[in-house]
Amino acid sequence: MDLTRYLTKKKRIIEEALDKYLPPASRRPTTLHQAIRYSIFTGGKRIRPILTLASAEAVGGRPEVALRVACAIELIHTYSLIHDDLPAMDDDDLRRGKPATHKAFGEAIAVLVGDALLTEAFRLIATEGPRVKIKAETLLKIIGDIAAACGSLGMVGGQVVDIESTGLKLKPSKLEYLHLHKTADLIRVSVTSGGRLGGGTSGQLSALSGYGKAVGLAFQITDDIQDSDTQQDKEKKATYPGILGLDRSKRRVAELTQQAVSSLQGFDEKADPLREIARYIGTRKQ
Ligand code: GRG
Question: Could you identify the atom of ligand 1 that is nearest to the CA of residue 82?
Fold first, then answer.
């Protein structure tokens, strides 16, 4: 399959949907809605929502059933990046090559854009679309899964451990814990939510969860490897290359990619996009 074509097509579908679901920039309070649109539409690979659509397809569902939840996950991802860039956290001036939200709109608005995106994500999931009917029970399960993946036992917990580990030499097991929660939990729930919406069986959902965890970890290690020669000022951050070295980090990515692909053994060719995305994540350049 042609992965580039697949990713481009899905990215377009997601961006059109995001444009439709978000309030226009002219809607009061305009500063907030301008800042929300700036943050969402200033680049981004949309890998998490693409995984949601691909997972719905992998279990034989239509990707349209997963579109709202896919977009909600992109809103949550964007909130996490905006808050991570704040001076109180990672203090980054640039995001996706453009001024970070707090640089473009000020810190108070950036905090509130993040708050609004997180809240809006759950509204989007709970709102019925015109042509798609989803069982309330399925949506409730997804809401619970996403909240768990993003809360104190998930992404926020991982971020706290990351902050508290700055400057410390972590054991590999603690580093893995940190990355599993900071990065992999949201990626895993992107995959399992798509599986649920596509009508996956419990066996398929458990396989998708294994796939999502492996891909999520591989994604973070690849990110660390890419940053290892450019982030001189972030040397104090706990990273895979910093703790395991570059070669072992690359071997770990290869292992995780293999693990992700093996998790999908019981799936037919409809899971090919997921298999290709796992390989792409381990070798991506941006
Ligand atoms: C502030 C609650 C809170 C959490 C922040 C996601 C996160 C947790 C921090 C981001 C730090 C970071 C750069 C982690 C590396 C992995 C990662 C999430 C990269 C950015 O995701 P991409 O590459 O970004 O999917 P795009 O721009 O393509 O959307």
Answer: 1
Dist. CA 233 → ligand 1 center (Å): 18
Of 9-23, 158-172, 202-216, which range is least confident?
158-172
Distance CA 64, CA 72 (A): 14
For residue 285, name the pLDDT band (cuts at 50, 70, 90).
low
Contact by Cβ (8 Å): 71, 17: yes
**Count of beta carbons in the 10 Å neighbourhood of residue 9:** 13
Q: How far apart are CA 163 and CA 158, in angstroms?
A: 9
pLDDT, position 226? 87
Confidence of residue 232 (pLDDT cuts 50, 70, 90): low
Instruction: State the pLDDT confidence band at 66, using cuts at 50, 70 and 90.
Output: very high
- Omega within 30 of 0 (cis) for the link into 273: no
Listed as own residue / partner, the contacts of 28-35 with beta carbons closer than 8 Å and 24 or more positions apart are 31/105, 31/109, 32/109, 32/112, 32/113, 32/116, 34/105, 35/101, 35/104, 35/105, 35/109, 35/110, 35/113
Atom 29 of ligand 1: nearest residue by CA position: 44
Q: Which domains does the chain have, with CATH numbers?
A: 3-283 (1.10.600.10)
Give the count of beta carbons closer than 10 Å to the beta carbon of residue 235. 10
Mutational test site, ligand 1, from 81, 102, 115, 220, max ligand atoms within 8 Å of CB? 81
Contact between 243 and 170 under an 8 Å Cβ cutoff? The reply is yes
In angstroms, rounded to a whole number, what is the distance separating the alpha carbons of residues 198 and 55?
7
Rounded to whole angstroms, the Cα distance separating 271 from 265 reads 9
Q: What is the DSSP string of 68-116?
A: HHHHHHHHHHHHHHHHHHSTTTT--SEETTEE-HHHHH-HHHHHHHHHH
Question: Strands 94-95 and 98-99, how do they pair?
Answer: antiparallel
